[in-house]
Amino acid sequence: MIKRATLFFLTITICSSLLYAGAVIEGFHANTSLNKVELKWTVKTEDNVKNYTILRSLDQVKYKEVKEIKAKWNDKKEHTYTWIDDKVFKSQGNTFYYKIKIINQNGSTVEHDKVLEVSPQISATRHTWGSIKAMFR
Questions:
Q1: Potential cystine with 41: which of 28, 36, 103, 135 (Cβ 3.0-4.6 Å)?
Q2: For the chain, how many structural domains are there in total?
C-alpha cells in the first residue's frame, strides 16, 4: 500500500505539471491598422520556454500556425513580444482570431486561454492585387 506522504507528493507533482505552462502571459492585445494586425503580449516569467507560436483562424475552429517566435530565455525578467501580421489582406473574411501556443524546451505545448478577435481594415486595392498574384502562382 502506498504511504500517504508518497501519494500526496505524487498528486502534487502531477497537478503542478498539468497546470504549469512554463510562462506567465499577461496582457495579450491586438492593434489594427490598414492591412495589418499588430499582436503584443507581455510575459512576466519564462521558465524552460523554447518558442511561442501564433495561431490564426477565420472561424475559431481551425487554427493555422502563422509565426513562431523564439523565447527570450529563462531569466526572471518581464519581456514584451510584438509581431505584425501583414498578410491578413490575403485571407477571405474580415474577422480573425488569434491565440498563442507556448512550446516548452521538453516539447510539451500549452495554448494560452485568451483568444483575440480582430477585424482589420483591408484595402480593396491590396486585396484585389493579392488575388491576382495568387492566380499566377
A1: 28
A2: 1
Nearest to 74 by CA among 106, 50, 41, 91: 50
Instruction: Provide the domain limits for residue 62.
Output: 22-135
Mind listing the pLDDT tens digit for each residue in 4-60?
544 444 344 343 334 445 788 888 999 988 888 999 999 988 888 899 999 999 999
Q: Which residue has the cell 499566377?
A: 136
Residue 1 lies in a domain: no
SS3 sequence, the chain? CCCHHHHHHHHHHHHHHHHCCCEEEEEEEEEEECCEEEEEEEEEEECCEEEEEEEEECCCCCEEEEEEEECCCCCCCCEEEEEEECCHHHCCCCCEEEEEEEEECCCCEEECCCCEEECCCCCHHHHHHHHHHHHCC
Q: Is the pTM of this model over 0.90?
A: no
pLDDT the model gives residue 121 = 78
Distance CA 133, CA 104 (A): 38
